[in-house]
Design a protein that fits this description.
Elements: E1 4-7, H1 17-33, E2 36-39, H2 53-64, H3 94-106, E3 110-113, H4 117-123, H5 143-151, E4 156-159, E5 165-170, E6 174-179, H6 180-184, E7 187-190, H7 198-208, E8 213-217, H8 221-234, E9 240-244, H9 264-269, H10 274-280, H11 296-302, H12 305-317
Parallel strand pairs: 1-2, 1-8, 8-9
Antiparallel strand pairs: 3-4, 4-7, 5-6
Helix pairs in contact: 3-7, 7-8
The structure holds glutamic acid.
Length: 318
């Protein structure tokens, strides 16, 4: 079976060190295992997309020495290429999402929901701040609510989860499990503004692109059981998951795109060299003594997949 792996940035801000670390490790994993490496632009949410960030992301990756076998055509900005598994920009994939959405709807996996987050969080009293589990109000609505749903113009679509445990063995973090009903709840696959949601788009694209290995930041670990629930009902091939522990700043706070302080653009403006920036991505990892940080390629030559995984496993246990 041919292997395929991907990196899928969202152009909602400049890539920071944490994003680039996921990109680098995904590229290394692909190159070490002989997988096709795909770059996908997760630009589904036009409201969050910042003009110029998709181009900047590709330029950042190029600068680090990360290349890809398939991805958006960059001759005239980031535009789609249609080939065996394109387009590689989610904003061009609505037809694919619509098809799968219709299939899920026809097979009874979805229901309309008119609750706003504010509304249902007020109903559920969470002992520790915000409730995050949708209580299923629109799943079995009262007669009055059903009338509101039927006459409503604005509604989202939720995926009906079963009361069952999803288990998988993450290649880095090991055995992981979540009960869909208890830990996850019915989740949105299409938003009230008509946009397809991240989980649906990711599952459809990963299947379309025949992705066998998903390597991404551990902040997305929680998403995996939702995606596996969709994969199972759609009968798609289950990929291997590699969730990389997040880099934190000196105060132990995880990096985010929002403040832009650790973006590659900023680091380059501060005069940091490529080797210095790549070295930062290995901060806290063991086994780095003989690493040549000149470029992504020299790292590829000085480590092996086993060594990196062992080091990441130790890091995640600290
Ligand atoms: N586009 C997502 C992000 O930048 C990543 C999606 C994924 O890897 O599944 O956070």
């Amino acid at each position: 079976m041919s292997l395929a792996s991907r990196y899928a940035p969202s152009p909602s801000g400049p890539l920071h060190l944490g994003n680039l670390r996921s990109a680098l490790f995904a590229w290394l994993q692909a190159r070490w295992s002989g997988a096709i490496f795909i770059l996908r632009m997760d630009d589904l949410d036009a409201l969050r997309t910042i003009p110029g960030m998709a181009e900047q992301a590709l330029e950042d990756l190029n600068w680090l020495g990360i290349d890809w076998d398939r991805g958006p055509n960059t001759d005239q900005g980031v535009v789609s290429v249609k080939d065996t598994c394109g387009p590689y920009t989610q904003s061009d994939c609505d037809d694919h999402y619509q098809q799968v959405f219709d299939q899920l709807r026809q097979t009874g996996h979805l229901y309309k929901c008119i609750c706003s987050r504010k509304e249902w969080q007020a109903v559920v009293s969470a002992p520790h701040g915000e409730a995050s589990l949708y209580p299923g109000t629109c799943r079995n609505p009262s007669i009055a609510k059903q009338q509101r749903i039927d006459s409503g113009k604005q509604f989202s679509w939720r995926f009906r989860v079963d009361d069952r445990v999803i288990r998988f063995v993450d290649e880095i973090l090991g055995e992981t499990k979540q009960n869909l009903a208890v830990d996850v709840g019915d989740f949105i696959v299409r938003r009230a503004d008509g946009l397809f949601a991240y989980h649906l788009a990711t599952v459809v694209d990963d299947a379309r692109m025949k992705i066998t290995d998903v390597l991404r930041g551990a902040d997305l670990l929680d998403s995996t059981s939702r995606q596996l629930a969709l994969i199972q009902v759609l009968n798609y091939q289950i990929p291997k998951y590699w969730h990389v522990p997040l880099i934190t700043d000196a105060k132990g706070k995880r990096l985010a795109k929002r403040d832009g302080s650790d973006s590659l653009m900023q680091l380059r403006k501060q005069g940091r060299s490529r080797a210095e920036i790549l070295k930062l991505m290995f901060d806290g990892l063991s086994g780095t003594d003989n690493t040549n940080y000149e470029s992504a390629q020299t790292i590829l030559d000085s480590w092996s997949l086993d060594e990196l995984v062992t080091s990441l496993r130790c890091y995640s246990r600290v």
